[in-house]
Amino acid sequence: MNHWKIGSLFLVLALLLTAMVGCKSEPANDWERVQKAGKLVVGTSADYPPFEFMNDNDEFDGFDVKLMEEVGKQLGLEIVWQDIGFDGLIGALQTGKIDAVIAAMSATPERDEEVDFTQPYYIGKDAVLVAAGSGIVINQKEDLAGKIIGVQTGTIQDDWVTENLPDDEIHRYERAEQAILDLKSGRVDVVALDYFVASAFAGQGGVEVALETTFSSEHMSIAVPEGSQELQAQLDQAITNLQNSGFIEELGKQYLSGE
Amino acid sequence: MWREMLQALPYILGGIGYTLGVTVVALTVGLVIGVLLALLRVYGGRAAQNFAAGYVVLLRGFPSIIVLFIIYYMLAALIDLPPFLAGCVALGVCSSAYQAEIFRGALQSVSPGQMMAARALGMSHRQAIITVILPQAFRNAIAGWSNEAAIVVKDSSLVYVVGLPELLRRAQQVAARLYAPFLIFTVTAIIYFLLTFATNRLLGWLERKTRIPQMVAAR
After folding, report:
1. To the nearest whole angstrom, how far is the Cα of B141 from the nearest Cα of chain A?
2. Which chain B positions have a beta carbon within 8 Å of A205's beta carbon?
3. Model-level pTM?
4. Cβ contacts (< 8 Å) between B177 and chain A: which residues?
5. Domain count, chain B
6. A-B contacts (CB, under 8 Å)
7. Is A158 in contact with A172 (CB distance < 8 Å)?
8. I need a surface site. Which of A63, A71, B102, B217 has the fewest CB within 10 A?
9. What average pLDDT does this structure show over A192-200?
10. ipTM of the prediction
11. Cα–Cα distance between A77 and A99 in angstroms, integer?
């Protein structure tokens, strides 16, 4: 095949794809559509206990899951869960495959450009884990300099280390548990992740929390498609109600406190 | 830990349905497109040959996961495929590029004398391809095809990105909950091994069953 032929093939393909992405599904009042359907399709990544995981009855469970189901009750909507890898959630939301995302996701400025976020339902904190008996002492964030650090891709911890530490000291993993494995085997010195996820790992042994901190205060929010104002307002209202009624605090005690 | 693992095992095994479903449908999609492409490549006119060659070059160059993203997410505005179909079509289209080459090799390995003999008996070109060449080519293709089948069994794990709870994704969920990735993934690897082993045994049986005794003896 000639080069120009391959070239033109690619060109046609590229044009086709741009045309298709151009006509992305319109968020023509998501709230009305959702209300009519009586259900809200919510994406999460069920590999992140205690926020979202599959429990031993093979049901979606966790802090986020229980919160969202209560939000659904408030809004009179059935919650339909979709388990999608964390990296794929924003894309699924943008293309209308799901109506909302709850996945311990922080409303970072970068994400906010792509989708819209509700008010935070939970303000989290971060932790730094070291291997048990490693003798590594981390008293403040600055002590991370010069350490090989593991993070989960796309998380708020990833953002912080990317901003503040040289790239060759950062190892990025698709899932938190892979970072923990490398911490145990010594490929990384420390792992930065959400505090409660970290303490759950610490409870399993082999690793310990060296530092409790906030990298850039995790504001966990529910994500909705860009421009879904009505849906966002309804979710905001439900979150406010659940905060005022003390439901979210109770849920935090049940899922996040201690071990 | 073992007890929890055993309790979770039925859930993990439940993912096999998706794994096998996607594999079988994707392989079938790939087979149909692949055979057509191979026929175009070997017997088609110049334009058809170029088309088939271009298709193979292009799709072999794309990672399956990106083809899946394109079909499920980017084409959503045109055709809103459910996750299972999107997974089958994406993996099938990717597989078709490899299968096209398997069948092209298989078609070309049938000796030219076969075509001449068929034509001499008064068969049309098309008749000769369908009744003489293809049946032999399919037999030749089985060995190479069983490679592709084993690959698609494992590639089927990619469909988790569109939300299908297949074998590997379920294993990931359980590994995260039990904090036992080594144990769970070892068990999962054994399950995948058994699946590919069974697939290849089945194809091996098919290969023996369809063998033409005289042709083997002649070698």
Report:
1. 26
2. none
3. 0.82
4. 49, 53-56
5. 1
6. 91
7. yes
8. B217
9. 91
10. 0.78
11. 12
Handedness of CA A72, A94, A179, A166 (dihedral sign): negative
B127-156 pLDDT, tens per residue? 999 999 999 999 999 999 999 999 999 999
- Domain around B207: 2-218
Which of A58, A88, A94 comes nearest B161 by C-beta?
A88
* Nearest CA distance, A244 vs chain B (angstrom): 31
Q: Which two tokens mark B155?
A: 């590639």
Q: In whole angstroms, how far apart are CA B115 and each of B37, B109, B121, B125, B133?
A: 20, 12, 10, 8, 7
Domains and CATH numbers, chain A: 24-123+220-255 (3.40.190.10), 126-213 (3.40.190.10)
A53–B176 C-beta distance less than 8 A = yes
What's the CATH code of the domain at B125?
1.10.3720.10
Asked if residue B124 lies in contact with residue B60, where contact means CB atoms within 8 angstroms, the answer is no
Q: Name the phi and psi angles at B158, rounded to 5.
A: -65, -25
Distance, CA of B52 to CA of B38 (rounded, Å): 7
| pLDDT at position A123 over 60 | yes
